[in-house]
Every structure is written in C-alpha cells, then in structure tokens.
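Researcher: Quick sanity check before group meeting.
Model: Go ahead. Protein one:
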Amino acid sequence: MTVLAQAGAVAVAEVEVSAKAKRQRRSAKEKLRILGLADACTEVGELGAMLRREGIYSSSLSSWRRARDLGELNALEPKKRGPKPVVPDARDKEIAELKKAVAKAELRAKRAEGLVELQKKVSELLGIQLPKEGETP
C-alpha cells in the first residue's frame, strides 16, 4: 500500500488481495501437456522460463515425470483431500437394524408389564379376583 502526501492531503492506493490463496489442481491431461513442453526445452534458461510461465515448481515437474515413467497416469490426477470414505458392511447394517428391533421389543414388553401391574393394583382396590397365572378364567 502506498501513501501519497500532497499539500496536507493523504491518498491511499487500494490493493486487491484475495483472502486465501487457492490451491492449483491440474488434470492429468494438463500435466502431460506441461511435461511435453518441459521435454521440448533444450536451450539454457528455457525450462525455467516455462516453469515460471506455467506457475509450477521444478519439484512438481520431477514428481509428474516419475509418475509418468512408472505408467501411473492415474497418479497424475489430483487427489481428493480428507479422510477416505468407509463403505459400510452389509452385516453392520443388519446388526444395527436387529439391535433397533430388540430395543423396540424390550420397550413394548416393559410397557406391557407395567399395564399388567396396573391391572393387578386396580383389581385389588376394587376387590376383583383375577385368575392366577396358568389358570383359565
């Protein structure tokens, strides 16, 4: 940023700066094109000028050459960042569903037991005889 002082007035030149630099991602086709340009460079300083023009480092060029020489065209593709997605196993899904079903059944059984206890208490209060377990009404 430059500051200009003229007769007591201060003028500030605005500078455009991006908030965050973007990471360059090049396709395998683009990398092969750049490798072709680099291989065609024969004169002194020509390779350096090409690297500056394309905006890449010589280390990137050497890693791309290594991948190309090994025949790994897929290795030239940009890698997706972050953790690798985990494919869920079908058995894990089935186990989760069964656990959910068991929990639901246990909840229903607990409610049913509570209702039976409530019926017993109401019958005692009203003096009604309920049949014992194993007896038919």
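Researcher: Fine. The other one?
Model: Protein two, sequence then structure:
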Amino acid sequence: MSRTLILVQELIEQGNVRISAHGYDELAADLIPVRDVVAGVEDAVTVVDYPEYGKGPAVLVLQRDSDGEPIHVLWGIPQGHASPAVLITAYRPDPDRWSTDYLRRRS
C-alpha cells in the first residue's frame, strides 16, 4: 500500500475530504454514488502512486462500488498542505483497456 493512500484513508476517516468539480462531473457521468467512493476507500488497492506529482501527492486506486463493480479513483492532497483528501476524478475502467484485475493497463 502506498504512503499516499494511507494518508488519504486517514483524512477520509477524519471526515476531511473534498470532491473536485471535475470529480463530481465524472461520478455523475458514470453513475457512481459519492457514498460508494468514500466508503470504499478503506479497501482500496493502489494502481499507481504519484508521491511527487506537481500539484501534490496523488494516487490512482481500484475500489468497488456497493454492487462490487470496479471503480478507478484518483485521490490527491494539495501541494504544500496536509489536507484535505481530494477526489480528483473517478471512472469505471474499460475492461478492454485494463487487465482482468483492473490493476494494469493493457499494451
């Protein structure tokens, strides 16, 4: 598990979470309930960690909705700040572009 994901999970557990405008748009576009994303972060699996990303540390994770369907969520923490955890974007991964476990992009 990545350090970034641990920090994000701790912030969300404290209720210190924000969803970006883009994040809300993407959740709505894929019919992903906010509650599923926030609740599912405790079981998230790191896909790619970006600890040195220019806008602040970020981590792409695989989560599941309440029906067990896969969701990729990009969480971040603003550069120079300790909080909040920010949901940057979320989407349902395309099975044609991802491995069967949704952890690796297909070539």
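Researcher: One line on it for the slide.
Model: The first strand starts at residue 17 and ends at 19.
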